[in-house]
Amino acid sequence: MTVRAATSADLPVLQDIERAAGEPFRIFGMPEIADDEPPPLDLLERFRKAGHAWVAEDSAGRLVAYLIGEPVDGAFHIEQVSVHPDAAHQGVGRTLIAYVAGRARRQGLTGLSLTTFAEVPWNAPYYERLGFRVLAEHELTPGLRGIRAAEAENGLDRWPRVCMYLSTQPPGPRA
After folding, report:
1. Cα–chain-centroid distance for residue 74?
2. How far apart are CA 76 and CA 70, in angstroms?
3. Is residue 60 within 8 Å of residue 72, measured between CB atoms?
4. pLDDT at position 5, please?
């Protein structure tokens, strides 16, 4: 598997990946999420132009996943990471997140943040296995509060959601 920066030509495929990745939400009684339109091409292009859009290709060169985000309050906020169901359970999401964590660390960002569904197995429980932790309300930065407010406005709070964080800083010396 290869991780690389997304190109303009990739963007329609990212929408296809998003549609496919949404389908499993139906089994959790979340058809609204499955039916939600993928990010529009102009938004994906904005992330791409900013250097904040990456794709994962399988060994045959097919795009199987993508990640977009942007710096928010000193951390890199993962706006979306989606893996095509045909590539699930192969470490693709983990690889993309590790790649972005390395970039964030080299750019001096303190960590990765994201918002996600608390009870969907491939959301919060998955990110916890990768080392993310749920942020308490008092730990939310102004930017994360704004993101959560926008999500609530869009109806995402119909299901439990959490903000999560993963430090990109090396652990300090042990006492």
Report:
1. 17
2. 6
3. no
4. 97
Q: Residues 145, 161: contact at Cβ < 8 Å?
A: no
Mapping DSSP to helix (H, G, I), strand (E, B) and coil, where does residue 3 land? Answer: strand
CB 132 within 8 A of CB 69: no
Let me know: does 169 contact 110? Beta carbons within 8 Å: yes
pLDDT digits (tens, 9 = 90+) for 102-113: 999 999 999 999
For residue range 24-78, list pLDDT tens digits in order. Answer: 999 888 899 999 999 999 999 999 999 999 999 999 999 999 999 999 999 999 9
Compute the distance between CA of residue 158 and CA of residue 174 in angstroms, rounded to an integer: 42
What per-residue string of b and e applies to 109-142 under the rule 16 or more CB within 10 Å gives b? bbbbbbbbbeebebbbeebeeeebeebeeeebbe
- Dihedral over Cα of 60, 123, 71, 148: its sign: positive
Average pLDDT taken over every residue of the chain: 93
Residue 84 sits at φ, ψ, to 5 deg, of -60, 135
